[in-house]
Each structure stands twice: as C-alpha cells, then as structure tokens.
Structure prediction request, 686 residues.
Amino acid sequence: MRPDRLNPLFAETASLEGVGPKLTKPLEKLGLTRVRDVVYHLPDRFVQRRAVADLDEAREGEQIVVALTPVEHRAPRNDRGPYRVLAKDAKGNTLALTYFGRASYTAKKQLPVGEKRWVAGRLDRYGDMLQIVHPDHVATSSAGLMGHLLEPVYSLAEGLTQPKVADLVAQSLERAPELPEWIEPGVLDKHKWPAWRDALVLAHRGDHPLSRDRLAYDELLANSLALLLVRADNRRRRGQPLQGDGRLRSKLSLPFPLTGAQRRSIGEIARDLARPHPMLRLLQGDVGSGKTVVALEAMLIAVEAGAQAAMLAPTEILARQHYETLRQLAAPTGVNIALLTGRDTGRARESILLGLLDGSIDVVVGTHAIFQGAVSYRDLALVVIDEQHRFGVSQRLLLTQKGKLTPHTLSMTATPIPRTLVLAQYGEMEVSKLDEMPPGRQPIDTRVIAAERLPEVVEGLARHIASGHQAYWVCPMVREHETEDIAAAEARFAALRHRFGDTVVLVHGQLKPELKDAAMERFVGGDARLLVATTVIEVGVDVPDATLMVIEQAERFGLAQLHQLRGRVGRGRAKSVCLLLRSGELSGTGKHRLALMRETQDGFRLAEEDLVLRGGGELLGTRQSGDTHFRIADLDQIQRLLPIAHDDARLLIERDGGLTGERGEAARLLLYLFERDWGVQLLRGG
Ligand code: ADP
Ligand code: MG
Prediction:
C-alpha cells in the first residue's frame, strides 16, 4: 500500500482547478494523469525576457516586455492574411502585433485602441515594420509581467498553452509535501543538492542544473534500488538445482559445431542452473547469433534433471516458429515439446494442460497463455523469455510464481545494449553475450537512398518479387506520432497494393491480433510476397526468402534498431539487401549515422554510437514498446550519476536490507514515487 503522505501526489490531474474534460486528452497525451506527473513535467528550456522602456532599446530577435498603446486594428484582406494591431511605444515608434487564424479573437478583446498594455514577446521585423507575432502575454499592468522575465517553456499537446501548464504546475507544486531525505547525506553534501521539494520548485523556476541533477538522481536511485531488491530477493529464494547428466544433449545431432560464444554461454547457464538459487540471466546476441540453440541446451538440462521448461515468445507467430525449430532440433532426443497459445481451445488445450500437469510434456513453447491462471505444471524449473524488454521486471515476477520453487529464468534479447545502460535496465541480471556470429555469414548489403528515388526503389522491388523472392517494407512508428505514423503506413500499403495487388499484407501495432496473425501467416507461408510493417516485433519472424528490406524514413529509427531490423533480412541464396530511405536533406549527424550503417555490421558499435548521437531512449526500447524507462534523467545524467546511484543503493541495502531504518523508510517513499513499488513488495516476502 502506498504511504498516505504520497496521496496528494497521486491524486488525478482532474482534481486540479481548471481541468475539465477538454483537457483530459492533451494531458493524457503528455502522460500527465496525476499530480505527480505534473510536478515532474519539467521545463524544456527557459525564455529570458528584457523589460525595455521603448523599442529603440531593443534588438531584433530579442524577447522583450514593453508598454504599447494600440492605435488601429487592421482586419486581413483575405482569409489567409494575418490580423494586425498597430501600436505605439512611449517614444511614438510603431509596431505591429500580428495574429494568424483564430488568435485574432483574443487580439480584439485584449488590445482596445487607446488603452496602454504591457506586451511580452519576440521582436521581429516584417519588411520595414517592427512586429511581434502572437505575443506570449498581454497584461493591463506591468506587475504581472515583470515577475516573469524568466519563463519556463514546457512541452505541450494540442489544446494546452504555456500559461495553462504553468498554472497546473504551480497548483501541483503547492500540493507536493516535504519528504524525508532518501539520498545518502555524503552524496547530497558533495553535490550541494537541494532537498526534494526545493529541487522541484527550483527546477520549474529557472535553469538550476543542481536541482535537475538531484531529480534525475532520484529516478536513477529508485531504479537501482528496485533492481537490487529483485536481486537480493532472488538470493533469498530457493530454486531447484538442476544438474543435467548429458543423456539428452548427447543425442542432439546439430548440423553445425557450436561457436565459442555459444559454448561459453551454455557453460555459464549450466553453472547457474546447478545452484540452489534461481538463475537470473540475460542472453544478449545479434539476430542470427544462434540464441535458440543455447536456449534448447538450457531446457534440455532441465529435462535431464527431471523437470520441465517453458519458453515464452512475444507473439503467436514467433511462438510457433520457435516451436517448429525446437521440435526439429530436439527430435533425436525424444523430448516431448508442446505449443500453447491463446488460440488453442477445447480438447487440444485440455490435453496440453493435462500433459503439463502430469509431466508428460517436458517443454512448452507459447505466448502469455502458458502462464495463465488455469495452467499448472508438474515441475516447472526453467523459463526462457524471448525479447525480455517487452515483459517488465514486474511481469516476470508474476511468472516466477508458477513453479513450486522459483524457476530459473533466462531472458534473450537481440537489442545491443551498451555497458552503461545494461546496468540501468538489467542491473539485477547476469549477462551472457553471443559476441561471435556463426561462420559463413555474408554481411548485409546496406544502401542509403533519398526518398525522392522511391519510384526506382518500387521498380527494383517489382523485379525482386518477380524473380520469386519476398520482401519487407518497414515504416517507422514512434509513439509521439502514433496516429500519423499508422496513417502513413496505411497509405504506403494502399499504394503498394495498387502496384502489386493482394500479395501485399500490412501489419501494425494497432491491428487486431487475429488480423495481424492472419497477415503474418500469409507472409510466412509464402502466399504474400511483400510485408508492410511498422514495428520491429512484427518483423521478428524468420522468412528465409525475404531477402530485401526497405526501411522508410530510416533517420527516425535508432541505429541499434535499424541493425536489429536488417538482421531479419532472410539469408536465402539471393543477396540480402537493406535499403534505407531518407527523407529530404539530412543534417550532418543524420547523414553520418546512416552512413555508419553501411560501414559496420557490429551491433554494439552502432549502439554505442546511438548513445552518443541521440541518447538512450531507443536502445532501452522505450520508443517502440511504450515502456518508458527514464523520464527525468537524460543520457548525460545517466552516465554521470548512475554509477553513484548504484553504489548508493547497494550500500543502503547492505546496511538496511529490509528498508526499515529512517533512510530506508524514505527510500520506500522514493520507490513508490517512481512506481518501482514492486521493489517494496519483495521486501514483505523477505
Ligand atoms: P537468433 O535467435 O540469435 O537470432 P537463431 O538461433 O535463430 O539466431 O540462429 C540463426 C541461424 O543460425 C539458425 O538457422 C541456426 O540454425 C543457425 N546457427 C545457430 N548456431 C549456429 C552455429 N554455431 N553454426 C552455424 N549455424 C548456426
Ligand atoms: Mg531468435
């Protein structure tokens, strides 16, 4: 239960004055559903204004506050023209206050002819006339404006204005209580950081790097604490030691020798499994690095030890693909593998459930369905999770309640994550890396092409399809622009369908699962020749014949994501080609990025580069999965402060593992504040 003193912060935004139904949508769009979110909606930047006695004192381009007297209103000559109010300053200089569209209504009300007004805005020139376009403020006295010469600029959504957000922030700060200090006093002193509430107030009031750092540190500390609590909890739990005797693994007849990296990872996993504590391990490796075989070996160890294993995939199609692969590979071992998805109903489902319960099924592959309430296992000892970042830590904790003892978990991801961020995202796990590709892989031929040449690309695609191959067409989908992006993908799909007929299928995140699956199945089965998709996950299946991929607006993806995408291009006999379409003229860094995609196939190098170029958001999978990791800390702060926060958290847990001391209690508040309260829930069990 959340401590009462945090209740004012978790009240809904609708409880603030002046928030009616009209604002619900824009506030939601910004993620501001509770008072807590509003206090943490920190300004993007600040505008510094200068009060001037008259326009002679001001420079063009400067943000000013000046007293003006309107002398004439000029309505536009046509529909699209601006509405202008001519006004004079104290010296008689004339200036135009210019309004477009409906803003002219406000102008009529706020600027009556002959009455002095204080106006704040940016001084510009239009021809030989000075002007201010859409003044930020118009006031009847100087008092209100002079107090706000430094003004925060917040990110907005349609339907919100700066003054409105500023007002909601002010109200929310009023409600924010003082909270006890959770940061180690030494760290606080050393950085000269203000207390939590002061830091919030200051961060909204002006450019206070110390306050911003403190708030970022809080977020990082909450994250580290929660992850360390998971790890500590895990150490306390008893797991089932799994000691395989090799009898099943020796029967595998893999058509290839394992790579050194695969052997090393299997060794690391086997050691973990033999321990009496549940394994928490991440297997990280590029697409095609051979994670499936590693997972299979791990699951066979569990079966050799007399237990069961489950493999969880993010989509039904992927589950089916894993199932087919594992069944083929494991055929010589005689292990009984089953597939269970949400689609299985009736008899088939009953028989699988029975098999899991009586132990006649050794390994089950499936979607979330394998962990639903009705599913019981005789002895589930290992859970393999494909693409971990789509299941949060909290969900994973739920999964682990299916075994008699806590099952071992092996998470697999193809997202290359640089070392700095591994700590932030997977701090509670050990990591095994497949940093060596199976031999004989050809690098994927990657080309960067301007979007203006799209017709040529479509003709190339036509030849590719005519020669019997399949292809992907990927459109970006970024959460902030979800609706527009889906519309764009649908338009592209319509155009391609016009050209290629109904061999083109579309898959995007908002499609009903049945439709999505049906489309994917047509593509995997080879009936559809071109797949238009918006998300990385949809491109997660292996289709050997799809040897061409076109990625539209490539500059909107992160490098690591592009790399992950292109890894999906089939490795059939035809040459694998990835075309990156870039729109318009790119800035220097944009070009450099994309150029790098041609030069290197090294996912980790690309991920490090991403980090430098555009921050960690994409890497942490936030943009595409909607699972925001850090909202306050930026990349620079993560790099500077995360190691300190991690040490701070470790010390605190060493001294006060139950978080019962004075600082421990404060740290609990912090966990709730950042909604890492699953960390607190673990404390209760321990
Ligand atoms: P990942 O899941 O990491 O993307 P997969 O496990 O699907 O990669 O493996 C990709 C392909 O490489 C599969 O066809 C697999 O059989 C093959 N493969 C795996 N390990 C090796 C190896 N050591 N040598 C050659 N081929 C391998
Ligand atoms: Mg895979």
Summary: The two ends are 17 Å apart (CA to CA). The first strand starts at residue 45 and ends at 48. The chain has 25 helices and 22 strands. The pocket of magnesium ion (ligand 2) is lined by residues 291-292 (CB under 6 Å).
